[in-house]
Amino acid sequence: MMLRLISKLPDNYTNLREFMQKKRSRIQIINQQKVLDAGTEIFAKYGFRGGTIDQIAELAGMSKPNLLYYFKSKKDIYLAVLEQTLNKWMQNLMEWQVTGTPEEIISNYIDKKFEFSRDHADGSRVFANEILEGAPILKTLLGEDLKRLVGEKTRVIKGWVKEGLIKPIDPIHLIFMIWAVTQHYADFSAQIETLTGKTLDDDKFYKQAKKTATQIILDGVLK
Amino acid sequence: MMLRLISKLPDNYTNLREFMQKKRSRIQIINQQKVLDAGTEIFAKYGFRGGTIDQIAELAGMSKPNLLYYFKSKKDIYLAVLEQTLNKWMQNLMEWQVTGTPEEIISNYIDKKFEFSRDHADGSRVFANEILEGAPILKTLLGEDLKRLVGEKTRVIKGWVKEGLIKPIDPIHLIFMIWAVTQHYADFSAQIETLTGKTLDDDKFYKQAKKTATQIILDGVLK
DNA sequence: AATATTTTTTATCACATGGTAAAATTTTTT
DNA sequence: AAAAAATTTTACCATGTGATAAAAAATATT
After folding, report:
1. A66: which nucleotide lies closest, measuring CA to C1'?
2. Between residues 115 and 134 of chain A, which touch chain B (CB distance below 8 Å)?
3. pLDDT of residue B14
4. B26 CA to C3 C1' distance (Å)
5. CA pair distance B102, A168, nearest whole angstrom
6. What residues of chain A score a pLDDT lower than 50?
7. Could you report how far apart the first and last alpha carbons of chain A are, in Å?
8. What is the DSSP string of B92-154?
9. Do A143 and B212 touch (CB under 8 A)?
10. Which residue of B has its CA nearest to A148?
11. A199 CA from D7 C1′ (Å)
């Protein structure tokens, strides 16, 4: 299931649609990806308002007009970055197992979230920046697709509570807790690195962080 | 204990020092506070790079040159906002009780952090933005004052583990977990509001969030 | 009330930033 | 190899943004 953020935007929002849908040449594929990668890195640090086309162009190793040949505006770059990021983020949530014990399902989801924080730290930060700005672009999408998905998950957890499989906790806050903890390692990595000298790229640190978080949450939730 | 971020900056960084230290007139006190408040709100949303003096001036209800009469540059406003915010943030950590059971101390700290997220949501977001940008200004301070403070706390928690008062968990990750969860409600309030229709300003929601987080963490940590 | 001081406004400025047009170059197709 | 199509570069431009100078207005001091 793809989110197709771009196709859900109002018509006046962007011409990105046709731009991305056309069959793309070899060079286009390479360079659009370069821009997307650079854009992700810049928007992760500075957000939409704070990031500049010049920064992205330099990081992508091309001139500004050349970059604008691939994406016709800053907003188009941002939308493409957001779409890519959000798809990965939602993918993660959608991979939430449907069978298994609460322990298996929760620890597996925490696993996946930690993986995401390590492997897509910039994506996580792009997302964080978008939310900090008030989620101007994502608001609608979050209120539809994500809300539905989260609704499904809370119902599952509520079921566990009713069946007495886990302690009586509020499902939505458990989900927020998992998001908070896992994303913290990506979004606040600058602080974490300053305090510990480590990031999730350090495998020992990664395992220790995951182990501690998983242990506390499971022990806090399981009976 | 005040952090005095500004006085710790290299000389070439700012003239804010003398500016803030002079005895201030009635109007100065009022207007500097107006700017600080507006600056906090703008930088919370857009970060340092993304926020503009014009936005701050408009929100503060004064002209741009007038604003620049009170703070001589955008960076000066940002530094003052950061100092104010960071002082509050560290205050919170310093209020960590020194006596009591692990249960009391941890739940009390979570309490204080939730209070902060509710009462200083914009400050929390300013802080988040600074970290996302790579903590260019705060890095040194975090590596000194905060590191020392955190070191104290981890030693306390390690003591609890040794004495068998709590489960064997890694103290630093417990602290990160508490920060993550509590700050998430401030930093991601846009997402939370979209999903639940509520924010921490809703007292019932506030209590439920705090209760769930506290319960899971305590149950996850206490023996 | 007159004077000194502080605050606000008006008028600018230089540089940054998003974006465009058109020529030059490179790549692909025939 | 020539023609067509795609890509890159060069040269701009309008607006946004941080910042300043100096005059005008308001406030405080004598």
Report:
1. D8
2. 125, 128-129, 131-134
3. 46
4. 21
5. 23
6. 1, 11-14, 17-19
7. 35
8. HHHT--SSS-HHHHHHHHHHHHHHHHHHTHHHHHHHHHHHHTT-TTTHHHIIIIIHHHHHHHH
9. no
10. B195
11. 40
Which residues from B are below 8 Å from A211, CB to CB?
A: 170
Cα(B105)–Cα(B118) distance, integer angstroms:
20
Round to whole Å and give the CA distance between B175 and A83.
Answer: 33
What's the Å distance between residue A66 CA and nucleotide C26 C1'?
A: 14
Concatenated DSSP letters for A94-121? HT--SSS-HHHHHHHHHHHHHHHHHHTH
Q: How far is CA A121 from CA A56, A124, A190, B203, in A?
A: 18, 5, 11, 33
What was the pLDDT predicted at A22?
57
Question: SS3 for B79?
Answer: helix
What is the pTM for the complete model shown? 0.93
Position B20 scores a pLDDT of 54
Concatenated DSSP letters of B195-219: HHS--TTSHHHHHHHHHHHHHHHHH
CB pairs under 8 A between A and B: 182
* pLDDT, position A1: 44
Over residues B110-115, mean pLDDT: 98
What is the mean predicted confidence (pLDDT) over B3-13? Answer: 55
Task: Report pLDDT digits (tens) over B186-215.
Answer: 999 999 999 999 999 999 999 999 999 999
| Nucleotide whose C1' lies closest to the alpha carbon of residue A67 | D8
